[in-house]
Task: inverse folding
């Protein structure tokens, strides 16, 4: 951590843009892997629906014909396997791991597909967690992936820094919710991405409103939206609002996210698809 002229040389826990940090090289993929675009899904705090957005974008991408993958970097709180009803364990060799495939063919790597029991807690210190995330990039054979989504842990700590420094991220999607406090917190995530010189592709507001099934009127149950205000402040062009939808929540709880219906993130996916390919 840099503090004036003092430096611990531990770049993983430092956000300084010093020459030493800029010299860090991204980790190399496995020789048998191919990944063309990498999108990180980030939030300033937990509980705002980051994993939901990761899952929905992945499903939309796969439906659109792109070979899609999810790298679940939320080591201590993995949600992706449950949303996709993944219970089988990953297979591998002495030198590589193979991702687990969902029903529609999305490639997934998560700590839950490696643990003996899904409910086992991951009680690891930060450097070990960061190392596991790096290995998900370097040691997994990602098969001809067009778009990879990385489900990031909440906040702006060690693991997000590790991802930004070790993996060639093409852009970031920031997830928030309507509450004033959360909108303030999301600015930290946006600022972190900008500090790391990674473009913010879009801003997604989850639990944005509830639409009455009878009269179709929209009700802001958790307060008025601040998404457009934050987007303007940071020059973010693309925004999306996901409503409170009991059917969507039930689909995720039952591992049936691949059956969801909704066009809330269609514009966000088009923005991702328009990014240049490596």
Result:
């Amino acid at each position: 951590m840099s503090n004036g002229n003092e430096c611990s040389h531990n770049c993983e826990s430092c956000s300084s843009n010093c020459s030493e940090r800029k010299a860090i090289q991204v980790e190399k993929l496995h020789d048998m892997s191919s990944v063309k675009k990498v999108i990180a899904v980030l939030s300033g705090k937990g509980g705002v629906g980051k994993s939901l957005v990761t899952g929905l974008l992945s499903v939309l991408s796969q439906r659109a014909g792109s070979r899609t993958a999810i790298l679940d970097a939320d080591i201590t709180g993995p949600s992706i396997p449950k949303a996709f009803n993944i219970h089988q364990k990953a297979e591998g060799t002495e030198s590589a791991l193979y991702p687990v495939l969902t029903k529609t063919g999305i490639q997934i790597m998560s700590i839950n597909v490696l643990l003996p029991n899904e409910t086992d807690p991951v009680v690891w210190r930060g450097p070990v967690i960061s190392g596991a995330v790096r290995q998900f990039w370097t040691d997994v054979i990602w098969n001809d992936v067009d778009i990879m989504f990385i489900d990031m842990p909440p906040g702006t700590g060690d693991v997000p820094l590790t991802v930004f420094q070790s993996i060639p991220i093409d852009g970031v999607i920031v997830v928030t919710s309507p509450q004033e406090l959360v909108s303030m917190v999301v600015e930290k995530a946006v600022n972190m991405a900008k500090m790391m010189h990674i473009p913010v592709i879009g801003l997604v507001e989850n639990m944005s409103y509830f639409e009455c099934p009878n009269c179709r009127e929209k009700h802001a149950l958790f307060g008025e939206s601040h998404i457009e205000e934050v987007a303007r402040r940071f020059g973010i062009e693309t925004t999306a609002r996901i409503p409170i939808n009991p059917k969507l929540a039930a689909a995720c709880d039952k591992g049936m996210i691949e059956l969801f219906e909704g066009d809330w993130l269609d514009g966000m996916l088009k923005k991702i698809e328009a990014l240049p390919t490596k």
Notes: Residues 179 and 223 are 6 Å apart (CA to CA). The radius of gyration is 18 Å.
